[in-house]
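<instruction>
Derive structure tokens from the sequence
<data>
Labelled lines for chain and fold:
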Amino acid sequence: MPKKPRSDDQPRDKVGAKVVLWLLFGLAALFGGLYVGAHYAAGDKVPRNTTVSGVRIGGHSQAEAAQRLEAGLADKVNRGIAVTVDGDDTTLDPAASGLSVDYEASVAEAGGEESWDPVRLWNYFTGGSSSEAQVQVDNDAFNASLLALDDQFGTQAVNGTVGFDGAEITRTDPVTGQALDPADTLAALRSAYLQDDPAPVALEMSDVVPDIDSSDVQEALDSFASPAVAAPVTLGFEGSNVKVFPADYTPALSLVATDGELVPTLDAATLTEVVGSKVTTGAAVDATVQLVDGKPQVVPAKPGVTFDAAELEAGFLAAVAKPQGERTLALSSQVSQPEFTTKDARALKIKERVSTFPTYFPYAEYRNINIGRAAELINGTVLKPGETFSLNDTVGERTKANGFTEGFIISDGILVRDLGGGVSQMATTTFNAMFFAGLQDVEHKPHSFYIDRYPIGREATVAWGAVDLRFTNDTPYGVLIQANVTPSTPSSSGVATVSMWSTKYWDITTTTGNRYNPTKPKTREIDTVECHPNTGFDGFDIDVVRYFKPVNGNTETRDDEVFHTTYIPSDTVVCTNPNATDG
């Protein structure tokens, strides 16, 4: 039977355990204190024997080590890099080539970081190593420097091209270029950057094959360009076919380099314009008569064709690449016929000049502008049998937007400024051409007082919205109105001329009677700033007779026609305002 421990042994065991515990606690505190002290002693300092790219930075804080490294590498970082490119020498600025040193990263890589890692603390007190500085690259700067080297020492690759000059094919053969390989060049420059006394970096050019090479050019010629100019393309409209030839449509074609191929490309707007020149797109165009080289000539009517431009664009490239006999493209379309046909225009029998009349006017720039603009709008008017000409409808409102300027008109018996002054010169000229062509007078109004440059009793004035010149073509033939103006100058009068072209139907003669019923002018005093003085003259009545003699088989008879005109006196105007201007 085992002996029971004595009661006095237990206290001694407890005392021993406590001693051991205190001893262990003391040792832990001692080593902990030493570890903490070692950590704070090391801090973020670099291990004592550390070098980076040959520069000693050990034992210093990270910031100070970075400064020492920057100072130690300054000569290497700032020196040029000697380079030979296929035997040609040059020197590169490292910074301009995108090379630089990341000093903080280099120090951190060498161990210059604060840490509780015991290995890091051990290395600080006992170790240290040699490493290379961390080189960083600015890709944009490097690529720019590489491009400059390629421009200086290399040659640019040239894509082959295929194009058109009318119905002929043009081509440019591809050219292989020479350029530096970016990866090899960067590796060589980085290697030499921080070396001690590096030898010149030998760089070699490599061939650069163009995106579009000879095989791509030949493929474009065979598959598209050659067929494109081989024959015309027939466009099928409802009821008619239209051929467009290579010289017409090639301005709308191109072959564009895309992903290493020459891709046929269509300028849809240009093609639509080309096709539109072959047909009358939109509404039909009526036939008419124009003067060509001084003679009346029928301008044929054109049917109108409406087609879908998107449908033309979608199918044309495929059609133009097909072989002969298959180069057709049917288009959905609508064809409208003209109301006035070429046959109708010929039936007008506008063959000869049946009347012409000139009037003359003194120099004034507003007259040149306004009379010239009115003639431009009247010229080329065709009156079919039974149609009535209206000067106001033909010329339109006299506005600046319509090409007119301010000039003098007669209002309430005196001269005032207004837009379109001078247009009555063209009204008088047109009236007289109508008079001697034997056309029917519908509406005309002489000037209120007589203007001596106009034929007495045979003249007309107009005012927009109030007074018009109208006459009807009551002959069986069409009438083409020709109007033109020779501008006045400070030393010469201007001339307005209107001619009527048709088949002569009447031989017109005229007589002018004597003046009668004279009336005396008054004197008017005007007290406005804008006042135009005038020396008055008498008013009077006068009669003009038009006689009709039928010609060219005309069997009609017509009574003599009397034109009675009453001219009021032109009053004497006295400007009483001291600031009055005759402007």
Q: What stands out?
A: The first strand starts at residue 51 and ends at 52. The chain has three domains: 35-210, 217-345, 348-575.
